[in-house]
Design a protein that fits this description.
Elements: H1 7-21, H2 26-38, H3 42-47, H4 50-64, E1 74-78, H5 82-85, E2 92-99, H6 104-113, E3 119-123, E4 126-131, E5 137-141, E6 152-160, H7 166-188, H8 190-206, H9 213-230, E7 231-244, E8 247-252, E9 258-259, E10 271-272, H10 274-277, H11 281-284, E11 293-301, E12 309-318, E13 324-334, H12 336-340, H13 349-359, H14 367-377, H15 381-386, H16 389-402, E14 409-414, E15 420-428, H17 434-448, E16 452-458, E17 464-472, H18 483-494, H19 497-509, H20 511-521, H21 527-532, H22 535-547, E18 554-559, E19 568-576, H23 582-591, E20 594-605, E21 611-621, H24 628-643, H25 654-658, H26 663-678, H27 685-694, H28 696-710, H29 718-733, H30 739-753, E22 755-758, E23 773-778, E24 792-797, E25 801-807, E26 812-819, H31 825-839, E27 846-854, H32 863-883, E28 887-889, E29 892-894, E30 910-912, H33 921-930, H34 949-952, H35 954-969, E31 979-984, H36 990-995, E32 1002-1008, E33 1012-1015, H37 1021-1033, E34 1052-1055, E35 1061-1062, H38 1065-1071, E36 1077-1078, H39 1080-1088, E37 1094-1097, E38 1104-1105, H40 1111-1114, E39 1124-1125, E40 1133-1136, ...
Parallel strand pairs: 26-27, 26-30, 31-32, 31-37, 37-40, 38-39
Antiparallel strand pairs: 1-2, 2-6, 3-6, 4-5, 4-6, 7-8, 7-9, 7-13, 8-10, 11-12, 12-13, 14-15, 15-17, 16-17, 18-19, 19-21, 20-21, 22-23, 23-24, 24-25, 25-27, 28-29, 32-33, 33-34, 35-36
Helix pairs in contact: 1-2, 6-7, 8-9, 13-16, 14-16, 17-18, 19-20, 19-22, 26-27, 26-28, 26-30, 27-30, 28-29, 28-30, 32-33, 35-43, 35-45, 43-45, 45-48, 45-52, 48-52, 49-52, 53-56, 54-56, 54-57, 55-56, 57-59, 57-61, 58-59, 61-62, 62-64, 63-64, 64-67, 66-67
Length: about 1650
């Protein structure tokens, strides 16, 4: 409860404010302030700010600074402006300072109210102001009016209805000025006027007047009564009555005017009284009547004290002959005592009442006489003074008699001076209301020729109500009237309307029902309704009222009155409970093409106490020949739907009347308009409305096109009919003059043609129509759609929600977010789809993303109310997607009901949580279950029976793999050493919170969310970790909940709403700045630019762009103020746990300055990977459940038990993918030309748009090549995704996933608990082929590199399937999985050693795969090839490794370096034979084909190499450049030639005859070729002297070496596939 304002406390605060701001004047002002504030109401002081009161007070005081006492009032009328006045007000302000006198406030109020303005605040302190000689303000004190030598000043402050035009302000100023002048003159002359009346009275008494003494004495008593405080004197003037040329003339006697009449007097002698001169002659003659007093009303309204016409008291003067010679005129107002005193205390009235009682003939003290006396006492007092005795007798007797009967009567008295009629109207009290009073006023005004009407009402316990009308007329406009006719008219308008309505109800519904309806509704129609509508109209309205059942219900009727022109309509809207705001209804009507020309609202009170409002609109339309019968139902139904929020309120609704269509058909075009706008079309929604409404006939055909395309009940040829409609539209377009409108119509036509499905013709479960519309598009066919274009998209539209779901492929998945981007939520979703495609490159489905926008969130709603509306909209969005998605029943696709499809089966729809929908998965699954959708709760991953991403911390853990990879590349050991971090987000967030709990070595020096900034310049790792953990475990938390006591010196938590933040020395030192006071935005920018080890983004928003980008390009307006450029980042590593933290150009710019960063899609892909595992596991287990082998409870328990292993399976992908990117980045300079060729190929295939993906152009690639720069990690992150996606699609299209050898790949995808338990279900998994293909694509690209597949295809022309088969064979036979694991497990400081070892395995892999492609028989058989080579290759490897250890290890520098770096001996030795091992498959084939033991083959092969120095030659070939494709091919050809040469010579040697029994074949061959050997060795020696061998010289050497090859030698090649099972190889016993 708010405490009342303490005046003393308020004055103290105000005094402090004055001393702070006006130190030089504060002392002088304090007394003024105290007195002023005492005059302000406590309510206003509570409501207004002290700043506003200060400004108000100061503004008034500034006017008062200089004013001479006695001078004119100072008046200021203005609208306060902050810049000029220091404060603002919704009202117009009036400040006045004047000498204090009576009547001031009342008179000013009258002046203000004259034009109907209301007063909202009135302040009126009176104080004594001490001033200097020139009127300068000195000080103020309490009023001292009792001391005559002091003058008090009145300060008046009013706040009135705002007046915005200067003319109004000027008029108010003038009226106040005139009123204050009247008050001033009236008050100044008040005493003089009383003296003058006293003098006139004395003079009259001293004269012999031609009147009876009794009458004179009563007149004198009356004048004396006036002097006794019963009259407020406002003006006085003396006139002389003269006759000139036979005409009486009334002249003003100069110098006699006082009060308000003083200003009208001229100084030019006697002045003609023009008002008297303008009177008719017969009225002027009344001036000669010998009577002392003339009592009447003045023709002028009072501007002082009290509104109304002033009372006129004329006292005539006589000469000695008893003739009238003039008159003393007094103007003023009777005081309250004149109205409240009994008549027998008031002279004149007492006599008049006595005479009337006497003349009435009633017995004294009888009931009748007392009744008559009561009538006289209650007679309007002003009228009682003025009415003649005869007129009063007649009227009072009539009134007395009337009181016995409930009749309507009128008593009219004409003013003798013909200025007004006084009319007393009596009507039965129950019949009286404002409507009746207004009607009577109009009757009197018309009958009596009135110019203005004033009235007063008396209603008490009497049966009759009395209204006193004062009808002002012009003296020359007297009309004849018949009082009986007037009474008859009054009776007619006061006759009970309800009686007529009762009769009409009975006539319409019969007596029983009519009376029942009357009892229910008869008392509810108020006067305002009865005045405007006939009882017959009420009967029609009751039909609508009776149809309303509950608050919020509406009914309506569109009609045309019989006498109305064709273009005018009436529209009645009935609303139960609450009035319809005009601001709500008018736009609806105007958007339907109707102009509202009038409106009348009536409130009907039901017998139940409920209220029904009737709004009656007068409408004007511009449609030609509008047939009401045709459009009535369309219009009424549309208005109801719009009003209830089921249809939108925009200009499309004009089509209802113009094209004569219903609201649902209008919604079709509206939905397409909203969709095309989201597609970022050129034209605004309003412009598209203009095009459709302006071409309504074409709009109607577009709707026919839609209906023909999708109506399931359509018969005939859809294609032919659509072709006819399109031709018709194109023909009509020739008549459309506007090029823009032509383009808009064509876009609508194209978008309809690109539509594949819709739920428009579906029925909901209740059998009604959906209140939303969903449309599926073939995105590639949508006109003018910008790149990138998804494969499919579904647009869901309703007045409450809009949403779009974009899919990169038929099998695709991604989250649905609650977007807040009204204008471009599809652009937001499209950007996320691009990232999702990269994320989904590691999982089975392609990328998809959805977003929905809530459009009717409760205004100022609570969090729960907003959430409830969001959930309802989410349900609608999900339903819109499922409405037009195929289902699977027993594995067979089943189309949705009443959906005509223009595409094939499409049953795969999987969604997930995203921003704003983190807890909505169960809701999505609930909706899917209501559709009996085949995926069950696999439809939306992460629900209550699924994997809780936040609980698992899976997204953050995946991003942390990127963090570890970056720091590993930087040779930083974050597992054992502290590292500094700046974060975006707070601990309540999934990614931020989980991420910052993944290491106890984090030094979080700063972070921010949308509310606060957290600073901790020198954090304690353990303490801060514990506190972060505490916050994370709270239900809700923010940085404001952080324990400030553990924050290091100089840190703190600061609100982002602060104007500025004082930065400590410690924090300034940490941020390396000298400025210590910053705005929150500046501080956040400094945090983003901080020189730290890691910037961890776990929040929402885009905070970094490239220096060449504009903020508008980013699409995140809320963070424009604090966004920085990529080249301003000074951290070592950026990790994007949240989406879109940086623009892609911003990432690239950061990476180009040696920053470590991938992309958000790489960093946070674990979440989507986890969800995909969940979906695929559920698909598997749902099959098991359907067979009865498992219950739902068992499935739930099994899912939960596998949580940790699922996380490890997911994180494995993050580990290998970031490792692949790390290796690609390490090698990116050397591979730039290959990357460029790969990009061009992907572009050519149509899958990649390098501009949209921010990949460099060919020109930029050339510049980087010249500068020895490669692609950055963010660019490689995009490229690896496209390669994986493309490879996965290629493999799915091949027969490779069906190879039985790869069943283990499918099994290994699932957790261990499923592998042996459900193998049959795995083999029958609906996505079996997709899972295998995806796993193979991931494994190949991660291990072999981004360009591997492309280069293999480029060099060999093989298919993706054969290359992948060869990859699998080589991986298995060389045991590369084990080798890779050993290398990855190395814990060495020199990371380059590790990377180079991985590259050596890639060389072995590439050469071996190439050999397999070139030599293996087709089709390439994985299992048989593995069986053929695996054991033999391992044997060869063992031989080579043993030979290396015994003969080369001690002298090989590379080997020694590996050992010194920490590589184990066996692994180091194994890596040293990778180069020679690449020939091992040739050796195996030689052994198999020649039936010679492998030992001999190996010895001979490598012995020849040593003899001919072929290893050196192979090394030289490896040093050749491969900057271009042709250089790469040439180098590969040379290496292949060298291998072929060595193989051929080896076979020659092995087939050579022995010279003798003591020699071997090598010696025999050597002896036979001595000269050639010597020549070749000499040639190689010469080549060795050349600084750098090139292709030419090496080609020459190879040609020379080919001289050793016998021309008749039959080449040994791999045996045909059929021979694989028959060949008996010569294998040592140990194999």
């Amino acid at each position: 409860m708010q405490m009342p304002v303490s005046l003393d406390g308020y004055i103290t605060k105000m005094s402090k404010l004055l001393h702070d701001r006006l130190p030089g004047q504060a002392n002088d002002l304090e007394s003024f302030v105290r007195l002023y504030l005492a005059g302000i109401s406590a309510d206003y002081l509570e409501e207004a700010t002290i700043e506003d009161v200060y400004a108000l007070l100061l503004a008034h005081w500034n006017i008062a600074k200089q004013r001479l006492p006695g001078s004119d009032a100072l008046i200021r009328v203005y609208n306060p402006v902050l810049e000029r006045d220091g404060w603002e007000s919704a009202h117009t302000v009036i400040d006045i300072i004047t000498d204090d006198t009576p009547f001031l406030v009342d008179s000013v109020r009258m002046a203000i109210n004259q034009d109907g303005s209301s007063i909202h605040l009135s302040i009126h302190p009176v104080m004594h102001v001490q001033r200097g000689e020139e009127g300068h303000f000195k000080t103020a004190g309490a009023p001292r009016s009792a001391k005559k030598h002091l003058v008090d000043e009145s300060f008046m402050h009013f706040q009135i209805d705002r007046q915005n035009d200067e003319e109004s302000l000027t008029q108010i100023h003038k009226r106040i000025e005139q009123a204050l002048l009247d008050v001033k003159t009236a008050v100044a002359d008040f005493a003089a006027m009383r003296v003058r009346l006293s003098e006139v009275l004395s003079q009259a008494k001293s004269q012999a007047l031609p009147l009876e003494n009794d009458e004179l004495n009563e007149n004198f008593a009356y004048l004396q009564w006036l002097l006794e405080g019963n009259f407020v004197f406002l003006g006085y003037r003396q006139h002389s009555l003269v006759n000139l040329d036979g005409e009486d003339q009334l002249n003003i006697i100069p110098g006699t005017s006082l009060g308000i009449l003083r200003k009208e007097e001229s100084d030019d002698g006697e002045q003609l009284c023009r008002s008297f001169a303008s009177l008719p002659a017969d009225i002027r003659r009344l001036a000669r009547v010998p009577e002392l007093l003339v009592l009447t009303r003045s023709g002028s309204a009072s501007r002082v004290h009290r509104p109304g016409y002033m009372d006129y008291i004329g006292i005539k003067t006589f000469n000695t002959e008893g003739e009238v010679t003039g008159v003393h005129r007094f103007l003023g107002l009777y005081t309250s005592s004149a109205y409240t005193s009994d008549t027998h205390h008031i002279p004149l009235l007492r006599r008049k009442v006595e005479n009337v009682l006497r003349r009435s003939g009633l017995h004294q003290n009888s009931y009748a006489e007392r009744n008559l006396l009561s009538v006289l006492e209650n007679y309007p007092r002003n009228e009682l003074f003025q009415i003649s005795e005869d007129e009063l007798l007649e009227a009072s007797i009539g009134i007395m008699q009337l009181q016995e009967r409930q009749e309507t009567r009128i008593f009219i008295r004409k003013d003798p001076y013909r200025r007004f009629y006084n009319c007393l109207v009596f009507i039965p009290r129950d019949h009286f209301n404002t409507e009746v009073r207004q009607s009577i006023g109009r009757i009197l005004e018309q009958a009596l020729g009135g110019e203005t009407v004033n009235f007063s009402v008396q209603i008490n316990e009497a049966l009759l109500a009395r209204v006193n009308f004062l009808i002002h007329i012009s003296s020359d406009a007297i009309k004849l009237f018949d009082i009986k006719n007037i009474e008859s008219d009054i009776v007619a308008v006061s006759q009970p309307w309800r009686d007529l309505m009762r009769n009409a109800l009975i006539g319409t519904h019969g007596e029983e029902q009519g009376i029942q309806l009357f009892r229910l509704y008869g008392e509810g129609f108020r006067a305002d309704y009865r005045e405007s509508y006939s009882p017959e109209e009420a009967v029609q309205d009751i039909k609508h009222i009776a149809a309303l059942q509950k608050p919020g219900d509406i009914s309506m009727e569109l009609l045309r009155k019989e006498d109305s022109p064709d273009n005018l309509l009436r529209f009645k809207l009935f609303s139960f409970g609450v009035a319809v705001a005009l601001s709500e209804a008018l736009p609806m009507l105007e958007n339907m093409g109707l102009k509202v020309i009038d409106e009348h609202s009536s409130r009907i009170r039901l017998k139940s106490g409920e209220t029904v409002w009737i709004h009656d609109f007068g409408l004007q339309h511009t449609e030609q020949e509008l047939q009401l019968e045709q459009v009535k139902s369309f219009f009424e139904d549309a208005f109801k739907r719009i009003f209830q929020g089921e249809s939108s309120n925009d200009g499309f609704n004009r089509l209802i009347l113009r094209a004569i269509i219903d609201w649902r058909r209008v919604d079709i075009l509206r939905a397409y308009s909203h969709y095309l706008r989201q597609v970022r079309g050129t034209f605004s929604h309003d412009y598209m409305i203009q095009a459709m409404v302006g071409n309504a006939h074409i709009a109607a055909i577009l709707i026919q096109q839609f209906e023909t395309r999708f109506d399931p009940d359509f018969t005939g040829s859809r294609e032919e009919r659509n072709a006819q409609l399109e031709a018709q539209i194109i023909q009509l377009l020739e008549q459309v003059e506007s090029l823009d409108e032509d383009r808009i119509i064509r876009r609508f036509m194209g978008a309809i043609s690109a539509s594949l499905r819709t739920n428009y013709f579906q029925l909901n479960r209740e059998g009604g129509q959906h209140d939303y519309l969903s449309i599926k598009f073939d995105s590639a066919r949508v006109p003018d759609m910008p790149e990138p274009r998804p494969k499919y998209e579904i647009f869901v539209y309703s007045p409450r929600v809009e949403g779009v779901h974009l899919r990169g492929d038929k099998i695709a998945r991604g989250g649905l977010r609650w977007s807040d981007r009204q204008e471009d939520f599809r652009t937001e979703v499209l950007g996320l789809v691009k990232a999702q495609m990269v994320k989904n490159s590691v999982i089975v489905p392609g990328g998809s993303k959805g977003g929905f926008l809530t459009k009717q969130l409760p205004v100022q709603g609570t969090r729960d109310q907003i959430l409830a509306e969001g959930i309802n909209c989410y349900r609608t969005f999900i339903s819109g997607l499922l409405d037009i998605t195929d289902n699977l029943v027993d594995g067979v696709p089943v189309p949705p009901e009443r959906v005509f499809r223009h595409d094939g089966d499409d049953p795969y729809l999987v969604v997930a949580a995203d921003k704003g929908t983190a807890t909505f998965s169960d809701i999505a699954n609930e909706v899917a279950a209501s559709y009996q959708f085949w995926l069950g709760d696999a439809f939306a991953s992460g629900g209550s029976v699924g994997y809780d991403h936040k609980g698992m911390g899976i997204t953050a853990r995946g991003a942390w793999e990127s963090v570890k990879r970056h720091f590993k590349d930087l040779s930083m050991d974050i597992d054992n050493n502290p590292f500094t971090v700046v974060g975006i987000g707070d601990m309540s967030g999934d990614v931020f919170g989980n991420g910052l709990l993944l290491s106890r070595n984090i030094e979080l020096i700063g972070a921010f969310n949308h509310q606060h900034i957290f600073l901790d310049p020198n954090p304690d790792c353990e303490q801060s970790y514990a506190e972060r953990e505490r916050l994370f475990n709270l239900p809700r938390s923010g940085w404001e909940d952080y324990n400030r006591s553990i924050i290091s010196q100089g840190g703190g938590i600061f609100a982002r709403s602060s104007k500025s933040i004082q930065l400590s020395e410690e924090m300034a030192h940490r941020l390396q700045i000298s400025v210590t006071r910053l705005t929150p935005v500046e501080l956040i920018q400094l945090l983003l630019k901080a020189r730290v080890d890691l910037l961890w983004n776990g929040g929402i928003g885009t905070y970094v762009k490239a220096s060449h980008e504009q903020h508008a390009d980013v699409g995140d307006r809320s963070n424009e103020a604090l966004r920085i450029n990529g080249n301003q980042l000074r951290c070592r590593v950026v990790a994007e746990g949240g989406n879109l933290g940086l623009t892609q150009s911003g990432r690239i710019e950061f990476a180009q300055q040696k920053g470590c960063i991938f992309t958000d899609a790489i960093d946070n892909s674990a979440g989507v990977d986890c969800s995909d595992h969940e979906v695929n596991i559920k698909i598997l287990l749902n099959t098991v459940m359907s067979s009865g082998e498992m219950t739902l409870q068992q499935r739930s328990e099994l899912l939960a038990s596998m949580t940790d292993e699922v996380a490890l399976l997911v994180l494995k992908n993050n580990f290998y993918q970031t490792q692949a990117l790390s290796l690609s980045s390490f090698n990116s300079r050397r591979m730039l030309e290959a990357h460029g060729r790969l990009i061009r190929k992907l572009e050519h295939q149509g899958g990649l748009n390098r501009a949209l993906e921010y990949l460099p152009t060919d020109e930029v690639m050339q510049e980087r090549l010249s500068a020895s720069e490669g692609l950055t990690a963010p660019e490689l992150s995009v490229l690896i995704a496209y390669v994986k996606i493309g490879l996965s699609k290629g493999l799915i299209a091949s027969d490779l996933p069906d190879d039985p050898y790869l069943e283990q790949t499918l099994i290994d995808y699932f957790p261990t608990a499923l592998r042996s338990a459900y193998p049959d279900a795995m083999m029958g998994h609906r996505l079996r082929r997709e899972i295998i293909a995806t796993e193979l694509a991931n494994g190949l690209v991660n291990r072999a590199g981004i360009t591997f597949m492309y280069r293999m295809q480029e060099e060999t022309g093989a298919t993706e399937g054969d290359i992948t088969r060869s990859f699998i064979i080589v991986r298995e036979i060389f045991g590369l999985n084990n080798v890779w694991k050993q290398i990855e497990s190395l814990d060495i400081s020199d990371r380059d050693v590790q990377k180079n070892m991985m590259f050596e395995t890639r060389k072995l892999l590439e050469r071996s795969v190439r050999w397999m492609i070139q030599n293996a028989p087709r089709p390439i058989h994985i299992k048989l090839n593995v069986e053929r080579y695996q054991a033999r290759i391992q044997y060869v490897a063992a031989l080579l490794q043993s030979d290396f250890i015994h003969h080369q290890a001690q002298v090989n520098q590379k080997y020694r370096h590996l050992l010194e770096s920490g590589v184990p001996e066996q692994l180091a030795a194994h890596s040293m034979i990778f180069d020679t091992l690449s020939a091992s498959m040739e050796l195996v084939e030689i052994s198999i084909q020649t039936h010679i033991e492998l030992d001999s083959v190996v010895t001979t092969f490598f012995g020849l190499g040593d003899l001919l120095q072929l290893p050196w030659l192979r090394e030289k070939i490896g040093e050749l450049p491969r900057n271009t494709r042709w250089q790469a091919i040439a180098r590969v050809s040379l290496r292949d030639d060298l291998l072929y040469l060595q193989k051929s010579i080896c076979i020659d040697v092995l087939n050579s005859p022995l010279q003798d029994e003591s020699s071997n074949q090598m010696e025999s061959w050597r002896a036979a070729h001595g000269f050639q050997i010597e020549h070749c060795v000499q040639l190689i020696a010469e080549l060795n002297a050349v600084p750098a061998a090139d292709f030419t010289t090496l080609s020459v050497v190879l040609r020379e070496l080919f001289g050793f090859v016998r021309k008749d030698l039959v080449e040994v090649s791999a045996a045909p596939l059929a021979d694989y099972r028959q060949t008996e190889s010569i294998v040592p016993a140990q194999l």
